[in-house]
Amino acid sequence: MQEIRLASRPSGWPTADNFELVELPTPEPGEGQVLIRNQFMSVDPYMRGRMNDVKSYVPPFPLGAALDGGAIGQVVASNSPGVPVGATVVHGLGWRDFAVTDAAKVRVIDPAAAPTLSAYLGLLGMTGLTAYVGLLDIAQFREGDTVFVSGAAGAVGSVVGQIAKLRGAKRVIGSAGSAGKVGHLVDDLGFDAAFNYKDAPVREQLRAAAPDGIDVYFDNVGGEHLEAAIGSLNKFGRVALCGAISQYNETSAPAAPRNLALAIGKELTLRGFIVGNHGKRMPEFVEEVGGWLRAGQISAPETVVEGLANAPEAFLGLMRGENTGKMVIKISE
Ligand code: NDP
């Protein structure tokens, strides 16, 4: 088997040298365990934080050990009657082609219930739940709201915009980093307006796209985007602080937002959240989003990179904006 290890810790932008591909004998499952042949694995922005040796809501990746993260695979050997050979499972041991884990730590899924297996890492998985919880519970979205979402063509952002439309938003605006992504948001995902944040200041482009202001901002980016949103938010506006990807590879403190004091007079609510603490919403999420998926009302865009060895490059590409929708790595058929 093969696994990818953290070879060294980056300062600023990571490089391929921070990762190492290692060959090992394939392990045997112990009592109550299963051996999984991984088919897909996820790369996610939060993994950048785990490459640093700092305390956070998830512990850092240890040096010299395999990285981990969301994965889907098929059980090929089992010492657990509840998770038999042939079952398709979602679990937390990505970054390797075979994984041994306790049967209690995997979730059996129905591969036929989604358009692609990898949708269980995106629309029907962690990033979809993040969008659902962040928009509905954290930002307290209400029908008739005008919603702005940054990172809108990514895994979380693309689902936020679609849910807002399906739940009756007045207007949904997205920002993304290329003309192609902007076109995709409006033409394929039903956004009312979108702009490329690299073209002109976010503040100006947001004002033009939302002349009557916004009620909800779903923040995936932080910095200049958050400052622009605070400027455009209407009285009693709400912000879901989901991520701050513009800062993950920076080595100095961000300059923006400089206008936080506006939150007082506008009586804004800015609330952070970690999806891992909202698992109790999984049943409603699966029912509602799964229903939209079956009805063809929501789409699950993804960018698929082939081969475990290319996972580090895919992870770096994710932070450079090379993905549209969920970035996943196909490890085997
Ligand atoms: P995405 O699929 O959105 O991929 C990351 C995207 O970020 C890239 O495609 C790129 O798109 C964009 N990006 C990179 N650098 C910048 C920058 N400087 N300014 C603006 N955009 C940038 O990732 P996810 O959907 O998985 O994650 C989105 C956000 O949500 C991240 O901040 C992540 O950390 C956060 N998150 C938080 C969770 C929680 O529990 N709070 C759970 C899951 C995710 P572009 O081409 O548009 O620049």
TrEMBL record:
Pfam families: ADH_N_2, ADH_zinc_N. InterPro entries: ADH-like_C, ADH_N_2, ER, GroES-like_sf, MDR_fam, NAD(P)-bd_dom_sf. Residues 15-329 form the Enoyl reductase (ER) domain. The keyword Oxidoreductase applies. Keywords: Oxidoreductase. PANTHER family: PROSTAGLANDIN REDUCTASE, PROSTAGLANDIN REDUCTASE 1. This is NADP-dependent oxidoreductase. The lineage of its organism: Bacteria, Bacillati, Actinomycetota, Actinomycetes, Micromonosporales.
